[in-house]
């Protein structure tokens, strides 16, 4: 479960700050958000896109909620058209509302690199809710110099511990207030990152290096941040080129908080090579951010 986070969190350590995701801007019917990739060798591939995707989709629906108090995500689906080899220093997400009903909405997103090449597409369904209140923001403050420490990999950003298991892989995320959304529970994009990491690790354990090609998540309940959360991945089907994993998220009480299906394809050297020198900015990088 997730909730649209409309605060920038500029003064605190937030998922947006950890993954260098900008606040949303709107032009006509399109909402745009950008993500600074950092060094091309350290952006972490598809797992690093979770916060960008979830925020862009969530904000697109949240902004059209009308007089409803809030929005929670029910499911998130992503296809990674180009898992690696992105051009330039930024990715741009463009979200559009597809449909809105009395109790919820659906939005779509397309993510482009700096050369305007398509990186990923996705959709999300969200349910409108009433009677919700934002939690007291006790996320850690940034240092006095205004900087927010960023990590070189998504795993380091969420502070997770990843280990192989007999059936696949296990990712444990310790209590970390920097991973909170506006309700004070684990941000949906952080969950997407964890699902991707665990599912990909399970696939790689059975077939060698893999690229995540799709991610399908159903959010059941919020993930508390006062105790560890566990993302347990098992391989459902391992072929020569494609491996499918199932990842279940449980809280410290053993309750299922969500489940994801992660499909991975065998990585090839050509797919992983950058298409152009990092830092080359294309037209889409000029969009307001």
TrEMBL record:
It comes from the Bacteria. GO terms for molecular function: fatty acyl-CoA hydrolase activity. Residues 136-155, 269-289 are annotated as: Disordered. Residues 184-257 form the Thioesterase domain. Residues 11-123 form the Acyl-CoA thioesterase-like C-terminal domain. Keywords: Hydrolase. InterPro entries: ACOT13 (IPR039298), ACOT8-like_C (IPR049450), HotDog_dom_sf (IPR029069), Thioestr_dom (IPR006683). Belongs to the thioesterase PaaI family. This is Uncharacterized domain 1-containing protein.
């Amino acid at each position: 479960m997730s909730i649209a986070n409309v605060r920038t969190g500029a003064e605190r350590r937030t998922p947006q700050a950890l993954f260098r995701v900008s606040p949303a801007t709107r032009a006509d019917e399109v909402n745009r958000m950008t993500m600074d990739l950092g060094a091309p060798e350290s952006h972490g591939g598809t797992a690093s896109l979770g916060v960008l995707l979830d925020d862009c989709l969530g904000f697109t629906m949240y902004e059209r909620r009308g007089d409803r108090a809030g929005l929670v995500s029910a499911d998130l689906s992503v296809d990674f058209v180009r898992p690696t080899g992105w051009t330039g220093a930024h990715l741009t997400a463009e979200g559009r509302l597809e449909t809105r009903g009395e109790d919820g909405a659906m939005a779509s997103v397309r993510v482009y690199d700096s050369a305007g090449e398509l990186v990923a597409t996705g959709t999300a369904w969200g349910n409108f809710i009433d009677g919700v209140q934002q939690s007291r923001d006790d996320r850690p403050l940034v240092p006095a110099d205004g900087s927010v420490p960023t990590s070189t990999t998504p795993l380091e950003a969420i502070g997770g511990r990843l280990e192989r298991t007999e059936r696949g892989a296990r990712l444990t995320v310790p209590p970390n207030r920097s991973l909170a959304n506006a309700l004070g529970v684990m941000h949906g994009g952080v969950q997407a990152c964890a699902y991707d990491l665990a599912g990909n690790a399970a696939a790689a354990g059975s077939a060698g290096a893999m690229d995540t090609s799709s991610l399908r998540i159903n959010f059941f309940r919020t993930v508390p941040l006062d105790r560890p959360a566990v993302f347990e991945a098992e391989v459902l089907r391992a072929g020569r080129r494609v491996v499918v994993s199932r990842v279940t998220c449980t809280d410290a009480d053993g309750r299922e908080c969500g489940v994801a299906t992660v499909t991975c394809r065998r990585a090839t050297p050509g797919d992983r090579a950058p298409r152009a020198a990092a830092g080359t900015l294309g037209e889409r990088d000029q969009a307001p951010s």
